[in-house]
């Protein structure tokens, strides 16, 4: 069996105020998988994600990325391997141009000159934003800024792309364009989302987190058509959306 690219074992975590956010979470994601992380607000999804690149450190249990433990001494390499795209692109875009924003991470690691330019433009090509390299990010639409935020992570050549609510606040065209981009990427994807149709479209597998524990892990279609599971864990499909009408392999 190959080593999981993400290997979370028995992860428990309590915040300083004593709130226990995670209780012995196990999660194993293999190279090339696209996995949706589902659950109601307060389930522990964000807390789990912040352990994947060392923003939080485990109270108990372990997290590793392609066999590398997520520990203080490994943080620089872990954060290269696991890139997080936050829900608000403005949390990641702060330079005067798209090119400067995308180049910030590798430049910080000492990449310079032609190699930096190559990596920046390659990342922008992947998200369809190469023609906007010299535009100020704040002149772009919200959907375009989200794609640039994805590029700021791809430029680091990560093994895992973690997306926090990637479809939120996108118009239908931007939502579809981002889905096309995510399907085209040769990278492991973990997608935190409340957008269950998007999860079905993009992620063959879903993991459901509730009250800090994994309560389901299986095919997204099976999760979304398990009415009892959905009801017990406060997951609701949009009005009129029925996965059964789309067929089991919709969007894959």
UniProtKB/TrEMBL annotation:
ABC transporter domain mapped to chain residues: 6-236
Location(s), subcellular: Cell membrane
UniProt keyword terms in alphabetical order: ATP-binding, Cell membrane, Membrane, Nucleotide-binding, Translocase, Transport
Main location: membrane
Pfam (any one): ABC_tran
Alphabetical list of PROSITE patterns matching this protein: ABC_TRANSPORTER_1, ABC_TRANSPORTER_2
Gene Ontology molecular function terms on file: ATP binding
Membrane association type: Peripheral membrane protein
Stored PANTHER family: ENERGY-COUPLING FACTOR TRANSPORTER ATP-BINDING PROTEIN ECFA1 (PTHR43553:SF24), HEAVY METAL TRANSPORTER (PTHR43553)
Similarity section: Belongs to the ABC transporter superfamily.
Function in brief: Probably part of an ABC transporter complex. Responsible for energy coupling to the transport system. Part of an ABC transporter complex. Responsible for energy coupling to the transport system.
Protein name: ABC transporter ATP-binding protein
């Amino acid at each position: 069996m190959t080593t999981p690219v993400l290997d979370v074992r028995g992860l428990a975590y309590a915040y300083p105020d004593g709130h226990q956010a995670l209780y012995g979470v196990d999660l194993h994601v293999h190279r090339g998988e696209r996995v949706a992380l589902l659950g109601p607000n307060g389930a522990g999804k964000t807390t789990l994600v912040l352990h994947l690149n060392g923003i939080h450190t485990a109270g108990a249990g372990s997290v590793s990325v392609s066999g590398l433990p997520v520990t203080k001494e490994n943080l620089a390499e872990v954060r290269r391997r696991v890139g997080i795209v936050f829900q608000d692109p403005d949390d990641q875009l702060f330079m005067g141009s798209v090119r400067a924003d995308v180049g910030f991470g590798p430049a910080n690691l000492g990449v310079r000159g032609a190699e930096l330019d190559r990596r920046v433009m390659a990342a922008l090509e992947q998200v369809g934003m190469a023609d906007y390299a010299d535009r100020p990010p704040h002149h772009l639409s919200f959907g375009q800024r989200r794609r640039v935020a994805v590029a700021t992570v791809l430029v680091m050549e990560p093994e895992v792309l973690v997306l926090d609510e990637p479809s939120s606040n996108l118009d239908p065209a931007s939502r579809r364009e981002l889905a096309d981009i995510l399907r085209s990427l040769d990278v492991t994807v973990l997608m935190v989302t409340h957008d269950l149709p998007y999860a079905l479209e993009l992620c063959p597998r879903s993991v459901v987190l509730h009250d800090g524990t994994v309560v389901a892990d299986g095919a997204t279609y099976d999760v979304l058509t398990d009415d009892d599971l959905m009801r017990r864990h406060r997951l609701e499909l949009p009005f009129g959306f029925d996965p059964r009408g789309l067929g089991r392999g919709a969007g894959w």
